Amino acid sequence: MDLRRRALVPRSSRARGRLLLAVPFVLITAVTVVDILSPPDVHLGPFLIAAPAVTASFAGPRMTAFVGAVAVLAQSLVSVVRTSITDLNHTYQIVALILISVIATFFAHLRERDEKRVIRLRSIAQAAQSVVLRPLPHRAGPLHIASVYLAAEEEAQMGGDLYAAARTASGTRLLIGDARGKGLDAISEASLVLGAFRVTAHREQELPELVGHLEEGVGTTEETEGPTAAGAGTDDTDEAFVTALVLDIPDHEPVVRLVNCGHPPPLLLRQGRVVPLDAADASPPLGLSDVLSPDVTVETFPFEVGDVLLLYTDGVVEARDRGRAFYPLAERLTTWAGAGPQTLVDHLRSDLQAYAGGHLGDDAALVAIERLSPDP
């Protein structure tokens, strides 16, 4: 196994593999000893077939072939000790064991080939996901930022949730959103919105203009696929949308300006109190301007030194426990007594996973922003 494969396989899995490797050898030893000590009319040799068969389920073809060879040697030893290696019964057992070992080795080869292919695809997917959903900076002007992403899809690092940050000459702009649906379609919409934000967010323009650029990016893949794809698919292509929060935090003003496009409101933590920043006039989600009113309203809220602003997606508040109760985010925040945004998102991540029993029904993203004293 090369270094790349070792890096992608968890250490616990490698330790479990070494432990499993002892099973066929223990089986061969036990069957051989018991078979030698058994009465003449009792033959346990056929049980040795299980050794290469079990090995093929977790080990490679070389190890499977080696276990099969050891099993054949063990069966030959039993034949010599009990009667003769030319005994017809033992000869058939040895031949059958060789055939089963060859078949098991072949299937182990197929399984290992498929595993290598999956590892290559996983490494490519991880590289692509890291490019699409880039880590947020820990510092941006007077802001201290921390984030965490919890993908609902097993083995995935990214789903339909998204976040990004960009510096401007006067402050920091942030985006958090949630693309409709799951899987590749949601990732595609999220990547389009992230790309539009990275291209335009650093420019000195008003938030409504920035939201307009983001709006143009949603659903563009379906529009370029042509009439054949549009006619052959379902109605899902007409319903692509992304809920989003677009924020502008000036460096030298104790405020935050935001546009809420159908997204859950951010929560402001100030001196132990949790204040939801509800927009008086929320805008429609990105991609629905043709259906709903496209008016964009910018809301302004106080955001002072020492305040912490928590952005999140609906996968957080829609997580359920065993009793099907939703995760009480605001209530959980009141019990947090830590310091700094990183400890906050770490606390919420572990608390959310414990609350949901380790499995989330939807992707979840958290971004915590603390305003520090501005640099001289």
Description of the structure:
The protein is built from twelve helices and eleven strands. With about 375 residues, it is α+β, with helices and mostly antiparallel strands. A six-stranded antiparallel beta sheet has the order 1-2-11-10-7-8. α2 packs parallel to α4, α4 runs antiparallel to α5 and α6 runs antiparallel to α7. The longest helix has about 45 residues. The radius of gyration is 30 Å and the shape is elongated. The chain starts with a helix and ends in a 5-residue tail after the last strand.
> H/E order of the elements?
HHHHHEEEEHHHHEEEEEEHHHE
Integer average pLDDT = 83
Low-pLDDT residue intervals, each spanning 5 or more residues = 1-8, 221-237
Oligomer: single chain
Going by helix content, strand content and strand pairing, the class is: alpha+beta
For the secondary structure, the number of strands is: 11
Determine the strand fraction and express it as a percent band. 15-25%
| Tally of DSSP helical segments | 12
| Shape, principal axes of CA atoms | elongated
Cα distance, first to last residue? Answer: 53 Å
User: Widest sheet: strand order?
Assistant: 1-2-11-10-7-8
Specify the helix fraction band: 40-55%
- Largest sheet descriptor: 6 strands, antiparallel
Q: Over all CA atoms, what is the radius of gyration? A: 30 Å
In summary, what is this structure?
45% of the residues lie in helices and 18% in strands.
